[in-house]
Amino acid sequence: MFFKQKTLLIVLFAFCSCIIASTEQRKADEAVKLYTEDLFNRPRYFVPVSFSALERKRYITSLDSSLNYAHISDRDNKKMEHYVDSENYQRPDRASQNIKQLDSIENNRLYYYVIDFAFRIDSFGHKKLKKYHFELDTAYRVIKATDVSYGRDTRLENP
């Protein structure tokens, strides 16, 4: 009886995590598609081809490097705060930067998503396949778009 409940619980957890992941993927796909359509002024011939899997990443700060060197985990808030207080006492010139970065780490503000989007578009009568690399914030707004078609690296910053 216990084995059946445990198995059912594991299957239910796996199913729920797949639903959450697919919801995040769907939101990111839609945001990227709408951004791309707006970027090209809603072209008449616009065909989405593929989306890569949504990846969650984190920006690395100078405080992260210092904490890593001191063997302090970014999940241990008390040790991080103690380390920042100690470093601020030794290096007052870095105090404001350390406090901002500590706040960002503690409140999970350093995460972002990465996704690639391939699509076909009509460019002056020629159908072209284009591929863009996107960075999204946690609200699925485009932060940075990079044209990676044919090996190019053209960044488009979001104002």
Write a short abstract of this structure.
This protein has 159 residues and is α+β, with helices and mostly antiparallel strands.
Note down, in words, how this protein is organized.
The chain is of the alpha+beta class and 159 residues long. It contains 4 helices and 6 strands. Strands 1, 2, 3, 4, 5 and 6 form a 6-stranded antiparallel beta sheet that branches. β5 and β6 form a beta hairpin. The mean pLDDT is 83.
What is the arithmetic mean of pLDDT?
83
**Which stretches of 5+ consecutive residues score pLDDT under 50?**
none
Helicity range of the residues? 40-55%
Radius of gyration: 22 Å
What quaternary form is this? single chain
DSSP strand tally = 6
- Judged by helices, strands and strand pairing, the structural class is alpha+beta
Helix and strand sequence: HEEHHHEEEE
Q: State the end-to-end distance.
A: 58 Å
By DSSP (H or I, 4+ residues per run), the number of helices equals 4
**Overall geometric form:** elongated
Beta-sheet strand percentage? 25-35%
Q: Outline the biggest β-sheet.
A: 6 strands, antiparallel
